[in-house]
Amino acid sequence: MNVKKIRHIGLLTSGGDSPGMNAAIRAVVRTAIFENLEISGIIRGYDGLINKDFISLGPQSVSNIIHRGGTILKTARSEAFRKPEGRQKAYAALLEQGIDALVVIGGNGTFRGAIDFINDYDFPIVGLPGTIDNDLFGTDRTIGFDTALNTILDAVDKIRDTATSCDRLFFIEVMGRDTGFIALQSGLAAGAEFILVPETPTYIENISRLLDHDWRQSKSSGIIIVAEGDEEGGAEEIAGKLRKVAPHYDTRVSILGHIQRGGAPSAVDRVLAGTLGYEAVYALLNGAQGVMLGMVREEVVMTPFHQAVSGKKNINRNLLEIARILAI
């Protein structure tokens, strides 16, 4: 195989931010420098690429960022990059800058953009899974997922104090438009009475019946975790529906929102980000292209972008049963 000589790597973060992105940036930069490569950061993702918003990165550029949430390279979604003329400008900017390859950190949208760019220009790109949703096929965990779980758990523990003190039933909405990974694992960790996810049907009457039969007899307060993409709606909608069939419950709603994206990354996310950032540089040097690096059973694996974004990653339904039993 004719492997293109890599001398200069471009690095960007795109889409929603996630804790651990900075740790990944640090790992890519320091590994590249160790291999005597030039590395440039691209500000605000694909938009920055189109607008030639480059900065040179060195060891000092990534000092004291491993513990910081967000991304020092900023992030944005780019409508311009979706169009051929936008990608043409991006390619011209890379050539002008002398960049031979890209490392992109993000989620589905980031990798779909990379697919289009590779199809247009056969340019070497590898990706790191930076999203709190944990919805990418080809990795057991995405960068930011563990931190988001801990952020939610801290919030739910505090809300339970109030629920217990005031004999209330709280509906807590967490992120998860299409998947229930966050809701399921945070709900199990928090000891939630119910966990509502997009992958399984929600029946308001069943919730009311189970509350009356099981929960009300032994508890005076409770937590229901709701993924924002549940088929019955978000926490506000589901709470409203329950009030109609069970008005005797004192219900409240808390929507955690973007607090889930922020904060210092956990040790798990720092190790994951550092490992994958390191491996990304060597993947490019060894000729990899169009792949996402992930961690499966504690081993680094490469998954083609098209599989990472279209492959079906299923929640562990056994955890739903475990959570149900443990909530009795």
Summarize the structure.
The chain is of the alpha/beta class and 328 residues long.
Strand content: 15-25%
Backbone structural class = alpha/beta
Q: How is the quaternary structure best described?
A: single chain
Could you list the spans in which at least 5 consecutive residues all have pLDDT below 50? none
Distance N terminus to C terminus? 59 Å
CATH topology of the largest domain: Rossmann fold
Q: Would you state the CATH class of the largest domain?
A: Alpha Beta
CATH architecture of the largest domain: 3-Layer(aba) Sandwich
Structural description of this entry:
- By secondary structure, this protein is an alpha/beta fold.
- It contains eleven helices and eleven strands.
- The chain folds into two domains: 8-144 and 265-310, Rossmann fold; 145-262, Phosphofructokinase domain (Rossmann fold), CATH 3.40.50.460.
- The strands form two sheets. It has a seven-stranded mixed β-sheet with strand order 3-2-1-4-5-10-11, sandwiched between helices.
- The relative contact order is 0.17.
- The model has no long low-confidence stretch (mean pLDDT 94).
